[in-house]
Amino acid sequence: MDNSTGNEKHIVEENSKDQQLAQFRVNNYGTKMTTNQSVKVSEDEQSLKAGIRGPTLLEDFHFREKITHFDHERIPERVVHARGYAAHGEFELYESMKEFTKAGFLQQAGSKTPVFTRFSNVVGSRGSVDTARDVRGFAVKFYTEEGNYDLVGNNIPVFFIQDAIKFPDLIHAIQPEPHNEMPQAASAHDTFWDFVANNQESAHMVMWQMSDRAIPKNFRMMEGFGVHTFRFVNAEGKAHFVKFHWKPALGIHSLVWDEAQKIAGKDSDYQRRDLWESIEHGNFAEFELGVQMIEEKDEFMFDFDILDATKIWPEEVVPVKIFGKMTLNRNVDNVFAETEQVAFHPGNVVSGIDFTNDPLLQGRLFSYLDTQLIRLGGPNFTEIPINRAVCPFHNNQRNGFSRQRIDVGQVSYHKNSLANNTPSTSTAAEGGFVHYAEKVEGRIIQARSDSFKDHFSQARLFWNSMTLPEKQHITEAFIFEVGKVQSKSVRQQVVDMFVHVDKAMATTIADAVGVDRPTGEQSTVTASSPALSQANTIRVPQTLKVGVLIGNGFNGAEVKATVKTFRDNGITVDIVGERLGWIQGSDGLRVMVNESFVTTDSVLFDSIYVVGGTAVNQAKFDSDIVSFINQAFMHYKPIGIATTGESFFKASNATAGPGIVFAEGNPSFDQIFVKAIAQQRFWNREIY
Fold first, then answer.
1. Alpha-carbon distance 459 to 465, whole Å?
2. Which end of the chain is more exposed for a tag (fewer CB within 10 A), N or C?
3. Quick one: signal sequence residues (predicted)?
4. Residues of the chain whose pLDDT is less than 50?
């Protein structure tokens, strides 16, 4: 905003892109083009030919190198988690965890460890949309002084299957169907639901997937979980079973399904753009890290198996101990070199963190390493900068594709005398990793413990924990997804399965998708876990985005005061008008419009502030504002109405009620509106 006249200069700070470009020019000024062998290039526009119109000659080594490199710029995308986005940051330890683990980066309160975190969608290809209904990956690489530790999890604490041998079947079922390669990044098709109905251990996970958790608002507002049961082991060798939790500082918030679908069309990069822009603007993503811990002696005291990846440990039964915070404060410099080439592996642990006999985890310990070998061209992927440990490493591994390090000396084996047996192994006292000495005995068998056979108790627990709006969203998600299934037999199997979770829900689904009502009975579990409901999350206005819908002739004093209140509360403001450029209020205040009704949309904002005004094409301007109001109202978002905006509100389908804040006659408008913005959704609103 600006009170100056049109002839005065307006000083605009150089944005980060300009700064990066300027730095690039400084770093590259005066350099000469060379080949990858550092031979200076004299011509980069024409290939070498035999005569001016003759054939191109293969001896043109610059042409061959340039084209060959281009031909090989793509590497195989991940089979799962292909679409991802990442950022750098640091992890700060609040309090020492020495009592529970000897992991070096968890010993000294206040210590900081560099991290690299990649968020991802599981099912879609790299070119799919961000806002698909899907599980989100949440993988963190800690660059510790003892080596790299990877905490590789999801935004949902459980999984579809109990044993890793079924993972290929799950992914084959949920990915696009092979006969027509459709649908992309979606589970709403026959093969997935056929798998669910015939593999009923998936019941609990499917309840989460049909919930709002599967369409997070952005990466900064979703929980993260290690999913599996791991061990902490302290210096005395005492172990605790643990589950890892990432708690977002901004709370856990989601999109509504209609909103998610529309965003996919308006901005398929919505979630990655949010992370990038937030960090660029200094709104760093923050997550607190905690663990649930169970002593070994208590392993069998629960009504679920603590090694079953389809089960949670209810937080009311096993509390989460928070001990540190991760702050993502730097965007990547190159998406391919970092985000695409980073290699996570749950087997990358440091001394003091160990594995359990969770059969899904045991399979992942093999699979992730095997995957990196083919994606990243062989065994030396650990030498790629983003994967390289920050501490020195020494071993006798040699050669292989893309070897970066030049090893010297004649000795590359253990034991040896020529190099005085270096590198040598370390004792436990010296920090050498010693696997936890768990006593294991039993017959070799392909079977599953009876303690893994209860598939519906926790699915019912999850349902019991939801509010009425959350239950409605789950039911509607089932209706949408199962309604896309062509096989009536599969639709019937699904409702017959989920009657064991809730009979009323399954009956509603059956009626909507054209199958017989189920006759089974629901689980008798009556317990709930309030921690599972997003109704109980943190609600703050910081970093939320408000669209100010405005034209010429606005009330300058009112708008200036309101926007100042927004910014004082950490709210991001976009000025949306008929066209980009300056507009002027009735008192001479000038405002720069940075988005037009053509370049943005109501679904891309957390709230709208309706100011109104005049425009060149008044009818179109009025229609656009009314459309914004209708859509925001339908998605339960807060709406603020300036004194000059009431005519637009009256022309819309929206009605006064929860989350609708009027400035007229309301001296506390700014503060009330900010509280409404922090609330984000008003589920008790009567939707037209």
1. 10
2. C
3. none
4. 3-14
Q: Which of 62, 88, 148, 154 is catalytic?
A: 154
Residue 516 lies in a domain: no
Task: Please write the tens of the pLDDT for every residue from 67-105.
Answer: 888 888 888 999 999 999 999 999 999 999 999 999 999
Question: Which of 387, 415, 440 marks a domain boundary?
Answer: 387
Partners of residue 609 on adjacent β-strands: 548, 640
**CB atoms closer than 10 angstroms to residue 308:** 25
CATH number at residue 671: 3.40.50.880
Q: What pLDDT is attached to residue 20?
A: 66
> Is 154 among the residues known to form the active site?
yes
Burial class (CB in 10 A: 0-12, 13-18, 19+), 244: buried
Is residue 71 within a helix (H) or strand (E), and if so which, with residue range?
helix 61-71
Distances (CA, A) of 578 to 194, 560, 602, 632: 49, 19, 14, 19
Active site residue 81: yes
Which residue reads 């990793």 in tokens? 433
Asked if residue 329 is part of any domain, the answer here is yes
Q: In this structure, what is the dihedral angle of CA atoms 351, 113, 156, 267, given to the nearest 10 degrees?
A: -150
Q: Are 547 and 605 in contact (CB under 8 A)?
A: yes
Whether cis (ω within 30° of 0) applies to the bond prior to 346 is no
Number of domains in the chain: 2
Exactly one of 81, 228, 473, 635 is catalytic; name it.
81
Query: Nearest-CA neighbor of 352 among 250, 286, 435, 416?
Result: 435
Buried b (16+ CB within 10 A) or exposed e, 493-506: bbbbbbbbbbbebb
Q: What is the pLDDT of residue 12?
A: 32
Q: What is the pLDDT of residues 433-453, one digit of tens each?
A: 888 888 888 888 888 899 999
Domain holding 643, by residue range, is 539-679
Annotated binding site: which residue ranges? Answer: 78, 118, 167, 364, 368, 375
Binding residues for heme: 78, 118, 167, 364, 368, 375
Measured distance CA(260)–CA(146) in Å, rounded: 42
pLDDT of residue 573: 97
CATH code for the domain of 288: 2.40.180.10
Q: Is residue 203 part of a domain?
A: no
Angle between helices 167-174 and 190-198 (to 10 degrees): 150
Q: What angle, 0 to 180 degrees and rounded to 10, lies between the N-to-C axes of helices 503-513 and 468-483? A: 40
Asked if 148 and 139 touch (Cβ cutoff 8 Å), the reply is no
Q: What is the pTM of this model?
A: 0.92
In the block, tokens 């000038």 appear at 590
Quick one: DSSP state of residue 339? I
Q: What was the pLDDT predicted at 141?
A: 98
CA distance 304 to 508: 29
User: Is position 197 within any domain?
Assistant: no
d(CA 639, CA 656): 10
Predicted confidence at residue 413, as pLDDT, reads 86
Among candidate residues 336, 358, 387, the one where a domain is terminated: 387
Indicate the pairing of strand 607-612 with strand 595-596: unpaired
